[in-house]
């Protein structure tokens, strides 16, 4: 079972208190995008074995969205952070790198 900390209200709870919202840090395309760009946004999601950055909502609490870095194999949560950020905080990146040597994350924009 996952234990997550909501960075918005500070509540620590089991995953049943939260609702998963898919991959974090997706690049969204506006009305002028091509069909291929829109297709990739909708359907080409990462589903890694290992470290994954995800969106979560505190469904049974404050109701706000936040982001979490976790390992899909070990179920370890490296940290949670605000949904308004464009990339994970450096402390979470450092924690991931310490636990999973050689892991690299994509460039966020």
From TrEMBL:
Coiled coil: none annotated. GO terms for molecular function: sarcosine oxidase activity. GO terms for biological process: tetrahydrofolate metabolic process. This is Sarcosine oxidase subunit delta. It comes from Roseovarius faecimaris. The lineage of its organism: Bacteria, Pseudomonadati, Pseudomonadota, Alphaproteobacteria, Rhodobacterales.
């Amino acid at each position: 079972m996952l234990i997550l900390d909501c960075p918005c209200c500070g509540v620590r709870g089991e995953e049943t208190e939260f609702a998963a919202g898919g991959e974090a840090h997706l690049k969204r395309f506006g009305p002028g995008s091509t069909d291929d760009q829109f297709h990739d946004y909708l359907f080409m999601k990462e589903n890694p074995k290992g470290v994954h950055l995800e969106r979560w909502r505190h469904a049974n609490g404050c109701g706000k969205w936040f982001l979490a870095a976790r390992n899909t194999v070990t179920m370890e949560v490296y940290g949670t952070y605000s949904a308004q950020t464009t990339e994970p905080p450096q402390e979470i990146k450092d924690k991931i790198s310490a636990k999973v040597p050689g892991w690299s994350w994509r460039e966020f924009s």
